[in-house]
Sequence to fold (187 residues):
Amino acid sequence: MLFATIAAGCGPAAVASTSPTPLPTPAPTRDPHLKDPVTADQIYRVIASGGMRLYPNTATTSEGSIVKRIDADLDGWALRITAYTNGAAMLKARAWKTGGMPGRGEAPYNFSALNLLIAFGPTNPAAPAAPDTAHQATAAKLVEVLDPLLWPIEQHSVLAITARTAVPPTTPSTQPAKTQPAKSKAP
Fold:
């Protein structure tokens, strides 16, 4: 009997069962995109914090559907930030179509998002030509700074700038496809 007690004591020790530790619930990531309406001042501050040389020239307020327009100098080129009362007013005022080339009297780079129009570069009676590499880099930096906040950014530019945030793919229509009746072959 003594041998059985000693043998039992040498066996594997009983391991206490532990309950699994629950994983913490992940916190939702805050959406960084701004919502309509966005102010011209908000966008000016965002651009200024992007490490580019930005100097204000003038600002005007309340011209019809325009809430505020800021004219500034960005790395030696004109920058115009125009905030409209809402996105519908901006689209009504916007004279260009997305993806097209700027024409006479337009800036080389034009962007729109939410209720904002942003033009970068000089305007003159001739259609704008491709800018030098320094201003191309500034335009790319401008989109890089704005992209996380304004989405989607539509553009009308001499050279298209790829945004980091891709536009979501269009979803197929929920309508069933119309089918054509099969043609019968005449005997």
